[in-house]
Amino acid sequence: MTELDEKIKDIFVEESVYKDDKIRAIFSGWNIPSFIKDWLINRYTDKTTGMVDKEGILEFLERHMPWKGLKGELVNHPFRSYKVLARIITEPDVRQGFIRFYAPDLGIRPEEGIVSPMLLSTQEGKHLSMGEFWGVCELTYIKENDKPGYIELSGFKPFKPYKVNLDYYIEARKEFTTQQWIDVLIKSMEFNPDALSFDEKLLLLCRLTVFVEPNLNLIELAPKGTGKSYVFSNLSKYGWVMSGGFVSRAKLFYDLQRKMEGIVSRYDFIVLDEVQTVKFSDENEMRGVLKSYLENGTYNIGNFRGVSEAGFVILGNIPLTEDRTPKRGMYFEELPIVFQESALIDRFHGFIEGWKLPRFNESLKVKGYALNVEFFSDVLHLLRSRGEYAAFVGDILEVPPRADTRDKKAIVKLTTALLKLIFPKVPLQNNEIKEFRELCLDLAKDLRRVIKEQLYIMDAEYSREIPDISVRGDEIQ
């Protein structure tokens, strides 16, 4: 066990978990996210010896997550309730006047499941009208006379095994050096920091900026296998990831027929993965709505005006040369036509050059102690609503009077997000200001600089220069 492992284990006694690929192999064949795996490993680890009770984990999986054959059990035993830990997706059925649910891992299709009206009136069920949820589900097969049968979700308890003390997390930062803290974050993202250079670690951390900062919009293009999809899909239940397929304005923003808000109203960030394969129902309409939303977090559909803090992330592949640099200077040529307009690209705050990250390999797999994913994702979610970071950045940055407004906004938002990640305890001490400038402000400017360079290539009206925003004070002299 390394010195950092010991420190993580001692400081985050209840919130840390030992991660080892050999231990996690026990979940082979179970399609469950990292936060469930971490919780089970932590629950079945002897705190004195560190030994993991693998048999106990398998017994739990078989007892509480009996996905194979469960639907048959339900149908064979009408009105008998079964409790399982599972993922459900709910959406309203306007014609029938109830809320449907489906559970892909259980084989329950959308037309087969109905959420109990009584459950929807309870504290646990009032948020179940539309979205994706993990929790303990009580399922019952209802079959009366000659009426069609259906599976009822009659009870639901959200999966929330940890009480998150954000202030404790913030105070714990002082127990680590900046280098150590960055490694804590990297390990909690389920990567091995020892297999990455310092620049690679910082670039990897940039993926987390949308987890902590509202209305932050990013683009990342990278070759396959760099782990970009994994980070957004497995580290948080507060994000929505779509890999290719059909996307409509109604699904994303607002459905006029159903009079229902779309997914931007329910998540911290929206990820369009494999964006080259995404198809839009009406490209001109989508571009118009996106431009308004990415600018100020609002959208107007018919007479409805929506407001959301969800950020947008565009993930796509990019062809590289043999020395792993883009083959073409214009990065967006292979993206859907919606994203080939300079005015829309300008509204994305930063660009992550994913080709500078290594392809995922065995050496990059995390081993040792890290923050468990459920705790870590909740911390990142809670940091979104803390206003002291934006206030600190606003006070400490010197912005030239003629700075482009969008550039200034992008750099400030990215700087604020990186501050939340790397220096969660504010205000900073004088000896931290130089690191803040290098790790937060300079990195934010680099992310924005790529956007400006691409805008210059796309449209000669844009300048490739970014404003010379600096840090106030004599501490950095």
Please tell me about this protein's structure.
It is built from 18 helices and 18 strands. Helix 17 (405-422) crosses helix 18. It has a 5-stranded mixed beta sheet with strand order 3-2-5-6-4. It is globular, with a radius of gyration of 24 Å. The protein has helices at 3-11, 21-24, 34-43, 54-64, 70-76, 117-120, 166-172, 178-188, 198-205, 209-212, 228-234, 249-252, 283-296, 342-345, 373-383, 388-396, 405-422, 433-458, and strands at 16-19, 81-93, 98-102, 113-115, 131-142, 150-158, 218-221, 239-247, 254-255, 260-261, 269-280, 298-301, 304-307, 311-316, 350-353, 368-371, 397-398, 470-471. The chain folds into 3 domains: 70-158; 197-357, 3-Layer(aba) Sandwich (Rossmann fold), CATH 3.40.50.300; 386-471, no CATH class. The model has no long low-confidence stretch (mean pLDDT 90). By secondary structure, the protein is an alpha/beta fold. The longest helix is centred in the last third of the chain and has 26 residues, at 433-458.
SSE order and pairing:
Layout lengths: L2 H9 L4 E4 L1 H4 L9 H10 L10 H11 L5 H7 L4 E13 L4 E5 L10 E3 L1 H4 L10 E12 L7 E9 L7 H7 L5 H11 L9 H8 L3 H4 L5 E4 L6 H7 L4 E9 L1 H4 L1 E2 L4 E2 L7 E12 L2 H14 L1 E4 L2 E4 L3 E6 L25 H4 L4 E4 L14 E4 L1 H11 L4 H9 E2 L6 H18 L10 H26 L11 E2 L6
Parallel strand pairs: 4-6, 7-14, 7-15, 8-11, 11-14
Antiparallel strand pairs: 1-16, 2-3, 2-5, 5-6, 9-10, 12-13, 17-18
Helix pairs in contact: 8-9, 16-17, 17-18
